Amino acid sequence: MMKLLFIFSMFILASLALAACTSNTPDTASAALQEPVTQTLVVQGHLEPVYSLDLAFSLSGQVAEVLIAEGAEVSAGDILARLGENEVRQVDLLRARQEVLAASQALEDLDNNAAQLEAQYKANVVEARQAVEEAEELLEEIQEESEPDQLDLDMAAAKLELVKAQFASAQDALDGLIDGIDPDQEAALLSRLETAEAAQAAALSALQSLELRAPVSGTVIGLSLQEGEFVTAGQPVLALTDFSEWVIKTDDLAELEVIDVKTGQT
Predict the structure, then answer these.
(1) d(C-alpha 43, C-alpha 55), whole Å
(2) Dist. CA 7–CA 3, nearest whole Å
(3) Which residue in 80, 118, 172, 208 has the fewest CB atoms around it within 10 Å?
(4) Confidence band for 150, pLDDT divided at 50, 70 and 90
(5) How far apart are the C-alpha atoms of 143 and 154, rounded to whole Å?
């Protein structure tokens, strides 16, 4: 009797256990279906600053000044170092600037004196016309003589031709004025100014070529400059790096894998 009771009890427990397993199976499967599938992409790469620029002089020469040190923080436009002959180039630039100022002043004076110049040209025309009239009267007087001297006639006629030419020249000069300005003189002064400005630009470029400036802000690294040493144009002497941001670079990513990578992905 006890044996039958034990068997019956075991049967009941087994039935309950089976029922419990059966009721849990759908929930577990449903939970498994709802869990997102995580895709993992493993590649090799290295961490770098967002940028690092190698800097070099555009000219070869002897280093006169080094104005920064390793690790210095610089801003865009800062002068980092200079080659020699800086003072000579500065003098050349000063002279070029003075010539530009002189040429500009001459043009300004030409414009300011336009009214005075026109008045002077008009006076020249009046004077030349009067000289023609006097020469004509003199020639007529000689011609009216009973026995005029041929030499006097020739000299009077030659003088008349001369003053007529002078009158024509004075009239042409007056007619050639534009708003009281001689265009030929203005063209000459403009040419002078253009030449002076070109010389100034060349002198400035020559001076700047002796300077090594920071094209961007950053930290100086890899400084290999010493005052007095000779450097070659184009040879990197330092680098500017931005340590405020970093990027991961890799060449271990296939083209088909790139499409699975998104900005901000972790």
Answers:
(1) 32
(2) 6
(3) 172
(4) confident
(5) 11
The DSSP letter of residue 178 is B
What's the full length of the chain, in residues? Answer: 266
Cβ-based neighbour number of residue 65 at 10 Å:
16
Distance between CA atoms of 19 and 92, rounded to whole angstroms? Answer: 102
Q: Is the pLDDT of residue 256 over 60?
A: no
**Strand, coil or helix: what is 172?**
helix
Count of CB atoms situated within 10 Å of the CB of 237: 21
Bridge partners, 100 (sequence order) = none
8-22, 92-106, 160-174 — most confident range: 92-106
Distance CA 92, CA 89 (A): 5
- Domain boundaries along the sequence of the chain: 2-26, 86-209
45 vs 141, higher pLDDT: 141
DSSP type of residue 41: -
